[in-house]
Design brief:
- Helix content is 76%, strand content 0%.
- The protein has seven helices and no strands.
- The longest helix is centred in the last third of the chain and has 41 residues.
Amino acid sequence: MNLKNRQIMARIPDILKRQIRSTRQKLVSIKADPQKISLGYALGIFLAATPFIGIKVPMAILLTTLLRWSKVASIIGVLHVNILTAPVFYGFSYLVGRTALRHQTSASLPDDLTLKSICELFTHNSSVFIDLLAGGAILGVLMALAAYLFSSSLFRKRKALHVRGSS
């Protein structure tokens, strides 16, 4: 590994700490019932894991409206998988799904990496999409559970601090 890659790898813990701190601040600033915030965030994280690129935010808004959970928290969760994190996440999701379903398929990125060529990769090979969907569901459930525990612990800690501070 060259020096530049080592420097980037060394910064990853700091980047993750900043991301967690930012998420924590966003979640606790939402004016809503903490339970509904935690449930909305978990739903958003689950949806983020799915391969429904481009319709995750509308799905989050629709589902949180029906369930009366926090829309804002669900959108925060959905946006964790973004243009920077998607290639790594979806690659891993594909491998998990392919392994879980025991598919022997393989997919490789096209030489001309365009939005059209990536869409064709999914539409011309349904097993790739099925593998992504299965991997996303498996990872999504695990990540949603972790997100729920993370967010609900934030509110428990905040409530404990308020109780101590008011006595």
